[in-house]
Amino acid sequence: MEFKTVVFYGSYRRDRQGIKAAKFIMNQLQKRNHHVIFADAKEYDFGILDRMYKEYEKGQAPEKMEELAEHIRTADGFVVVTGEYNHSIQPGLSNLMDHFLEEYFFRPAAIVSYSLGGFGGVRAAIQLRAFLTEMGMPTISSIFSISKIADALSDEGVAQQESLEKRVGQFLDELEWYEEALQRQRQEKGTPF
After folding, report:
1. Where are the domains of the chain?
2. Residue 4 in 3-state DSSP?
3. pLDDT digits 0-9 by tens, 70-123
């Protein structure tokens, strides 16, 4: 099957290490025939949340917000890439994603976390799971964590450790299982609300 998958990334930092993780996961998804949309908070830069997408009159939302809303609405699933800031997710990531709500419903999300140190951003990933679930996205049980990201991936997102290539296959198998199952349910039965 072919899936449309939106990859969210939220760092605004000048020397963004996490962009390597985003590139890595996008490359892996494309190898598996996913139509990938990259939702980079720095590119979509909506500013601090003032009005959610749904609070605009039809056709009045900023053009880039309308564009991203359409991508989210027509996606089969999401991969959310998070660094760990003070044991939590990046403010740019939560701000970007908070602009939308109903558009996410009944589509699965997978979490990729990273850090410069040895924990791989897992503390942020745990918080992100609760955040995504509250927004209507069931999260897959696996978390793809990347420790010591400065050395783990090249600037182009190429794995420098064989273990990353091995682990990512099973992670994406799980995401695709959920994408297919929820896609079928939405097509056959719609959504409960």
Report:
1. 4-188
2. strand
3. 999 999 999 999 999 888 999 999 999 999 999 999 999 999 999 999 999 999
Q: Between 162-189 and 18-31, two packed helices, what is the crossing angle to 10 degrees?
A: 60
Dihedral (CA of 125, 129, 132, 135) sign: negative
Residue 146: phi and psi, rounded to 5, are -125, 110
Amino acid 27 reads N
Q: For residue range 25-51, what is the model confidence (pLDDT) as tens digits? A: 999 999 999 999 999 999 999 999 999
Record the tokens describing residue 56, joined without a space. Answer: 């605009």
Architecture category of domain 4-188 in CATH: 3-Layer(aba) Sandwich (3.40)
Beta strands in 17-171 (DSSP E): 35-40, 77-82, 109-114, 139-146
Other beta carbons within 10 Å of 52? 14
pTM (two decimals): 0.96
